[in-house]
């Protein structure tokens, strides 16, 4: 129990004794369940759940969350089941533990699929009960603190995942304490050298600027005192990873990033914030366009503050954030601040209300996106919003990510408005749909019934909702159009035979042959160009079977291609088929039929894709010539090549091309492309070449 003592004291500060007692019971069960397990660092495993619970206790979370944190690995790693936990600690705790366990239990074929599905499950679990993600974030934070004990490859993978998903998620939920810690550990694990170098430069820079920081701080405090305003003024240090990101994204030198002096002024009431702003604008000259009022319009994660940029002493830029104590707590803890777990939309802090709204929008996104990859790409773009705020003509505020366009705005108002949008007016002037919007603009969307989304919108729409809805509409539209086109092409290919006269059984037979599920899907595949209408028409009319039977009975001899009437035919350069070879035709949209030898590696597996291949045979038409390639291995004596070419000419073949390659000092490969009528003539040519004195080996070339 000694491991629990520190946590017990933390909990006793804000939880009633009976709830602390229930947390102690959860600890005992977890300690018993994990007693034989060790962490990579060699410590008893139970130290991990206790540390996770400690992080959540710092945020003053409710006793159910603390209990679930203590038990979060019990279902996954030990014999205890969800039912056992529900019986002992109640259903809510058991559900939270199950929610966290589910995220770690998934098995998939590929790493990408695993990660993607994992994130999707995590987001969905979060929508169900946000405490699941708070436990997951605390779990990840403690794992990042001890990441040094892992193998380097695993360390890098976990660090990248932390920087890409978990830190932005903490930011989106407004929990900046955790976000900053995750970013710092992730940065050190992923780029240790960059982090160390940057840290030493930051230390050096901070030492050099101490004097100026103190001067600005003193001047600000004096001015506020003169106005009778009580406030705490602090120098605000930029975090290592945010300095790195700024240098990377804005291509700035280290000196340019560190050039900005940042301060935070914390006061008691909202009114005082605006008084401080007035006092500071009198002290230093404000920089135009650099003022943001996040108190009147909070950020999407509930963050509230006044931001202003001023020209300080010697013209150095000074950034100041002005906020109340409550806003300061909210900025650090976000969703977790003042934790009273409520499901009622009208109660709770701004961050909780906004987080709930955001999660609701994720739920809609999940329902309208095609697959997990698309969903996660959209969520990733939703995780990094630097917001802009625009107005509807009625004055309603719509919040959009930086770079959002009128199309994003239209979909944010309503899906139908997005789908029928034909233009936009911004501040009563015509505005291009692809031009990014700016904060404060009033946007009016023009719609027309019957108009539809344009695929080009995907080039500039940035919100997940807009992109998902455009894709969803276009997929549906494509499907309908492809079916209609497929039917028209098939009717044309059937020629004199009426499409409506073909029995449903024939369609069912052909669908089974080419491995598609239904007649509509067959038409769609034809319309999309994945299958050729002529090939399907031949199958429907039974000509394919007839052709196969003929092939088996005649053994296939002769020259041109039988069964390909009305089709464009070409011969594959990879295997160069000639009459007498066993052949198969690959149905290539745009190229017609491409004839390959059946043994060619490029058509391996043709039995599995009957819709893309077409049985064909040679037809008896004399006088056609075909190119084939032979490889001759020859000893390099003077005149060897001349002898070879004259020998080939003597057999009556034309040479189309020659390539030579030195194997070693005196052996050469000569690849000769020559024209022949059929396999028999090729065999004669090979025999003739083989008799030459310097030839070691000769064979038909297989690529």
CATH domain class of the largest domain: Mainly Alpha
Oligomer: single chain
Residue-averaged pLDDT, rounded? 79
Number of domains: 5
Secondary structure category? alpha+beta
Gross morphology is elongated
Number of strand elements: 21
Q: Report the CATH architecture of the largest domain.
A: Orthogonal Bundle
Catalytic activity: guanosine 3',5'-bis(diphosphate) + H2O = GDP + diphosphate + H(+)
Domain HD: 45-144
InterPro entries: ACT-like_dom_sf, ACT_dom, Beta-grasp_dom_sf, HD/PDEase_dom, HD_domain, NT_sf, RelA/Spo_fam, RelA/SpoT_AH_RIS
Enzyme class: hydrolase
Structure, described:
This protein has 703 residues and is an alpha+beta fold. It has five domains: 2-193, Hypothetical protein af1432 (Orthogonal Bundle); 204-336, Beta Polymerase, domain 2 (2-Layer Sandwich); 473-541, no CATH class; 561-618, no CATH class; 626-700, Alpha-Beta Plaits, CATH 3.30.70.260. The strands form six sheets. Strands 1, 2, 3, 4, 5 and 6 form a six-stranded mixed β-sheet that branches. Strands 13-15-14-16 form a four-stranded mixed β-sheet, with no helix packed on it. Strands 19-20-18-21 form a four-stranded antiparallel β-sheet, with helices on one face. A hairpin with a 5-residue loop joins strand 5 (306-311) and strand 6. Helix 7 (91-104) crosses helix 9 (130-145) and helix 8 (111-128) crosses helix 17. The longest helix is centred in the first third of the chain and has 35 residues, at 192-226. The chain starts with a helix and ends with a strand.
């Amino acid at each position: 129990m000694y491991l629990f003592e520190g946590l017990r004291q933390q909990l006793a500060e804000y939880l009633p004794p009976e709830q602390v007692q229930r947390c102690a019971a959860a600890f005992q069960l977890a300690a018993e369940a994990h007693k034989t397990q060790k962490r990579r660092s060699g410590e008893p495993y139970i130290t991990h759940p206790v540390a996770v619970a400690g992080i959540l206790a710092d945020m003053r979370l409710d006793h159910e969350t603390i209990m679930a944190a203590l038990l979060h690995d019990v279902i996954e790693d030990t014999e205890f089941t969800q039912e056992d936990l529900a019986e002992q600690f109640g259903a809510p705790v058991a559900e939270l533990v199950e929610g966290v366990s589910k995220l770690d239990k998934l098995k998939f074929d590929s790493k990408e699929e695993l990660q993607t599905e994992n994130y999707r499950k995590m987001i969905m679990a979060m929508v169900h009960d946000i405490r699941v993600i708070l436990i997951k974030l605390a779990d990840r934070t403690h794992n990042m603190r001890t990441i040094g004990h892992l193998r380097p490859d695993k360390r890098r993978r976990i660090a990248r995942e932390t920087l890409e998903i978990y830190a932005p998620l903490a930011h989106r939920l407004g929990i900046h304490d955790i976000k900053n810690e995750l970013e710092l550990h992730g940065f050190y694990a992923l780029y240790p050298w960059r982090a160390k170098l940057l840290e030493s430069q930051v230390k050096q820079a901070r030492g050099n600027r101490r004097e100026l920081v103190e001067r600005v701080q003193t001047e600000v405090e004096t001015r506020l005192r003169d106005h009778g305003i009580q406030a705490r003024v602090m120098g605000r240090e930029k975090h290592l990873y945010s300095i790195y990101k700024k240098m990377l994204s804005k291509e700035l030198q280290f000196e340019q990033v560190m050039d900005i002096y940042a301060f935070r002024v914390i006061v008691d009431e909202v009114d005082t914030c605006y008084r401080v702003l007035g006092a500071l604008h009198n002290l230093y000259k404000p920089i135009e366009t650099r003022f943001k009022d996040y108190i009147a319009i909070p950020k999407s994660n509930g963050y509230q503050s006044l931001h202003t940029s001023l020209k300080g002493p010697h013209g150095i830029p000074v950034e100041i954030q002005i906020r109340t104590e409550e806003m300061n707590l909210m900025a650090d803890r976000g969703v977790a601040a003042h934790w009273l777990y409520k499901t009622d939309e009208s109660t709770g802090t701004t961050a909780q209300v906004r987080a709930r709204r955001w999660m609701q929008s994720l739920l809609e996104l999940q329902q309208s996106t095609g697959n997990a990859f698309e969903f996660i790409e959209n969520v990733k773009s939703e995780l990094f919003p630097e917001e802009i705020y625009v107005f509807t003509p009625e004055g309603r505020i719509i919040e959009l990510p930086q770079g959002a366009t009128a199309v994003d705005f239209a979909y944010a108002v309503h899906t139908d408005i997005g789908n029928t949008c034909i233009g936009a007016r911004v501040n009563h002037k015509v505005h291009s749909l692809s031009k990014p919007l700016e904060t404060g603009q009033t946007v009016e969307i023009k719609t027309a019934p019957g108009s539809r989304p344009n695929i080009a919108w995907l080039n500039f729409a940035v919100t997940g909702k807009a992109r998902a809805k455009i894709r969803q509409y276009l997929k549906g539209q494509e499907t309908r159009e492809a079916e209609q086109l497929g039917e028209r092409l098939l009717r044309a290919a059937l020629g004199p035979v009426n499409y409506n006269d073909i029995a449903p059984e024939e369609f069912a037979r052909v669908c089974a042959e080419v491995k598609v599920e239904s007649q509509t899907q067959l038409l769609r595949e034809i319309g999309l160009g994945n299958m050729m209408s002529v090939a399907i028409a031949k199958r429907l009319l039974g000509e394919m079977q007839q052709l196969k039977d003929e092939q088996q009975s005649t053994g296939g001899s002769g020259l041109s291609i039988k069964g390909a009437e009305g089709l464009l035919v070409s011969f594959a350069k990879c295997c160069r088929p000639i009459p007498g070879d066993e052949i198969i035709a690959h149905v290539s949209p745009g190229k017609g039929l491409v004839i390959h030898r059946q043994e060619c590696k490029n058509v391996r597996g043709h039995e599995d894709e009957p819709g893309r291949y077409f049985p064909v045979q040679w037809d008896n038409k004399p006088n056609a010539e075909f190119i084939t390639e032979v490889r001759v291995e020859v000893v390099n004596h003077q005149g060897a090549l001349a002898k070879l070419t004259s020998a080939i000419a003597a057999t009556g073949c034309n040479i189309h091309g020659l390539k030579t390659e030195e194997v070693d000092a005196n052996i050469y490969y000569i690849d000769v492309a020559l024209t022949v009528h059929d396999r028999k003539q090729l065999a004669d040519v090979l025999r003739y070449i083989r008799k030459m004195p310097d030839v070691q080996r000769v064979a038909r070339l297989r690529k």
